[in-house]
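Hey, can you fold this one?
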Amino acid sequence: MKYIKKYLLYSLDLTTKNNTIGGFKKRHTEVTQHDLFKAVKAGLESIRRKAKLRKWQYIVYACISNTHLSKGNTKGSWHVHAVFYGSPCNAIAETLKSYWTKHGYGNSIQCQLKTYWSGGKINYVRAQEERSHFQKVNADEIFYSLHLKKETTKQEVLNALCSYE
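Sure. Predicted structure:
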Protein backbone atom coordinates (compact mmCIF):
# COMPACT_ATOMS: atom_id res chain seq x y z
CA MET A 1 0.00 0.00 0.00
CA LYS A 2 1.32 3.43 -0.95
CA TYR A 3 1.47 6.12 1.74
CA ILE A 4 -0.09 9.47 0.81
CA LYS A 5 1.11 12.52 2.71
CA LYS A 6 -1.56 14.68 4.29
CA TYR A 7 0.64 17.78 4.31
CA LEU A 8 2.99 18.84 1.53
CA LEU A 9 5.87 21.29 1.24
CA TYR A 10 5.73 23.83 -1.58
CA SER A 11 7.97 26.71 -2.54
CA LEU A 12 6.96 29.82 -4.44
CA ASP A 13 9.46 32.40 -5.68
CA LEU A 14 7.96 35.83 -6.30
CA THR A 15 9.79 38.33 -8.49
CA THR A 16 8.96 41.92 -9.35
CA LYS A 17 8.33 43.46 -12.74
CA ASN A 18 8.54 46.85 -14.39
CA ASN A 19 5.09 48.34 -13.93
CA THR A 20 4.79 52.10 -13.62
CA ILE A 21 0.98 52.04 -13.84
CA GLY A 22 -0.02 49.24 -11.42
CA GLY A 23 1.64 47.06 -8.83
CA PHE A 24 4.49 48.94 -7.15
CA LYS A 25 4.17 51.79 -9.70
CA LYS A 26 7.91 51.77 -10.39
CA ARG A 27 10.61 49.87 -12.22
CA HIS A 28 11.59 46.55 -10.61
CA THR A 29 15.08 47.85 -9.80
CA GLU A 30 13.51 50.68 -7.74
CA VAL A 31 11.32 48.40 -5.58
CA THR A 32 12.49 48.60 -1.97
CA GLN A 33 12.52 46.03 0.80
CA HIS A 34 9.73 47.98 2.51
CA ASP A 35 7.59 47.96 -0.68
CA LEU A 36 7.97 44.21 -0.94
CA PHE A 37 7.30 43.63 2.76
CA LYS A 38 3.99 45.50 2.57
CA ALA A 39 2.91 43.69 -0.61
CA VAL A 40 3.71 40.25 0.81
CA LYS A 41 1.93 41.09 4.06
CA ALA A 42 -1.21 42.06 2.10
CA GLY A 43 -1.01 38.87 0.02
CA LEU A 44 -0.66 36.67 3.09
CA GLU A 45 -3.57 38.43 4.76
CA SER A 46 -5.69 37.70 1.69
CA ILE A 47 -4.76 34.01 1.91
CA ARG A 48 -5.46 33.94 5.65
CA ARG A 49 -9.01 35.19 5.11
CA LYS A 50 -9.67 32.58 2.42
CA ALA A 51 -8.10 29.85 4.54
CA LYS A 52 -10.38 30.60 7.48
CA LEU A 53 -13.45 30.28 5.23
CA ARG A 54 -12.22 27.18 3.39
CA LYS A 55 -10.71 25.45 6.46
CA TRP A 56 -7.25 25.30 4.91
CA GLN A 57 -4.39 24.39 7.24
CA TYR A 58 -0.94 25.78 6.66
CA ILE A 59 2.27 27.33 7.83
CA VAL A 60 4.04 29.80 5.56
CA TYR A 61 7.52 31.27 5.84
CA ALA A 62 8.06 34.13 3.38
CA CYS A 63 11.56 35.57 3.19
CA ILE A 64 12.42 38.85 1.48
CA SER A 65 15.87 38.98 -0.02
CA ASN A 66 18.07 40.75 -2.53
CA THR A 67 20.79 38.08 -2.41
CA HIS A 68 21.11 35.83 -5.44
CA LEU A 69 22.86 32.65 -4.27
CA SER A 70 22.74 31.17 -7.77
CA LYS A 71 24.81 34.13 -9.01
CA GLY A 72 27.58 33.80 -6.42
CA ASN A 73 25.92 35.60 -3.49
CA THR A 74 25.59 38.83 -5.45
CA LYS A 75 23.10 41.55 -4.55
CA GLY A 76 20.35 42.32 -7.02
CA SER A 77 16.68 43.19 -7.17
CA TRP A 78 14.42 42.32 -4.24
CA HIS A 79 12.42 39.10 -4.40
CA VAL A 80 10.47 36.75 -2.13
CA HIS A 81 10.87 33.06 -1.32
CA ALA A 82 7.73 31.62 0.26
CA VAL A 83 7.67 28.10 1.69
CA PHE A 84 4.29 26.54 2.45
CA TYR A 85 3.53 23.45 4.50
CA GLY A 86 -0.07 22.37 4.78
CA SER A 87 -3.20 21.20 3.06
CA PRO A 88 -4.28 21.86 0.30
CA CYS A 89 -0.79 23.21 -0.23
CA ASN A 90 -0.96 23.69 -4.00
CA ALA A 91 -4.19 25.73 -3.72
CA ILE A 92 -2.69 27.89 -0.97
CA ALA A 93 0.50 28.63 -2.92
CA GLU A 94 -1.46 29.24 -6.14
CA THR A 95 -3.65 31.73 -4.27
CA LEU A 96 -0.60 33.84 -3.32
CA LYS A 97 0.78 33.57 -6.86
CA SER A 98 -2.57 34.70 -8.26
CA TYR A 99 -2.76 37.61 -5.80
CA TRP A 100 0.79 38.67 -6.76
CA THR A 101 0.16 38.68 -10.50
CA LYS A 102 -3.38 40.12 -10.40
CA HIS A 103 -2.13 43.10 -8.39
CA GLY A 104 0.61 43.72 -10.98
CA TYR A 105 3.58 42.96 -8.71
CA GLY A 106 5.12 40.27 -10.89
CA ASN A 107 4.76 38.13 -14.02
CA SER A 108 3.14 34.73 -13.63
CA ILE A 109 5.75 32.93 -15.71
CA GLN A 110 8.59 34.20 -13.47
CA CYS A 111 6.88 33.14 -10.22
CA GLN A 112 8.05 29.56 -9.88
CA LEU A 113 5.96 27.10 -7.86
CA LYS A 114 7.58 23.78 -6.90
CA THR A 115 6.80 20.78 -4.72
CA TYR A 116 9.61 19.69 -2.41
CA TRP A 117 10.18 16.19 -1.08
CA SER A 118 12.61 17.27 1.64
CA GLY A 119 13.09 20.31 3.87
CA GLY A 120 16.34 21.48 2.24
CA LYS A 121 14.65 24.52 0.70
CA ILE A 122 14.10 25.93 4.21
CA ASN A 123 17.86 26.30 4.77
CA TYR A 124 18.32 27.81 1.30
CA VAL A 125 15.68 30.43 2.13
CA ARG A 126 17.02 31.09 5.64
CA ALA A 127 20.47 31.84 4.20
CA GLN A 128 19.01 34.78 2.25
CA GLU A 129 16.62 36.24 4.78
CA GLU A 130 16.71 40.00 5.21
CA ARG A 131 13.17 40.25 6.55
CA SER A 132 10.42 37.67 6.78
CA HIS A 133 6.79 36.86 7.46
CA PHE A 134 5.76 33.76 9.37
CA GLN A 135 2.11 32.81 9.44
CA LYS A 136 0.20 29.81 10.72
CA VAL A 137 -3.51 29.26 10.08
CA ASN A 138 -5.64 26.43 11.50
CA ALA A 139 -2.31 24.73 12.25
CA ASP A 140 -3.07 22.67 15.38
CA GLU A 141 -3.07 19.37 13.46
CA ILE A 142 0.08 20.38 11.60
CA PHE A 143 1.91 21.07 14.87
CA TYR A 144 0.73 17.70 16.15
CA SER A 145 2.01 15.95 13.00
CA LEU A 146 5.40 17.65 13.47
CA HIS A 147 5.42 16.71 17.19
CA LEU A 148 5.38 20.39 18.21
CA LYS A 149 3.43 22.33 20.81
CA LYS A 150 1.10 25.20 19.85
CA GLU A 151 3.41 27.71 21.57
CA THR A 152 6.36 26.69 19.42
CA THR A 153 8.65 29.45 18.14
CA LYS A 154 9.24 30.23 14.47
CA GLN A 155 12.78 28.79 14.67
CA GLU A 156 11.52 25.51 16.18
CA VAL A 157 8.92 25.15 13.43
CA LEU A 158 11.49 25.85 10.71
CA ASN A 159 13.87 23.33 12.27
CA ALA A 160 11.10 20.71 12.25
CA LEU A 161 10.31 21.47 8.60
CA CYS A 162 13.99 21.09 7.69
CA SER A 163 13.68 17.40 8.62
CA TYR A 164 10.59 17.00 6.38
CA GLU A 165 10.71 13.85 4.21
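The chain has one domain: 8-162. Let me know if you want another pass with a different chain boundary.
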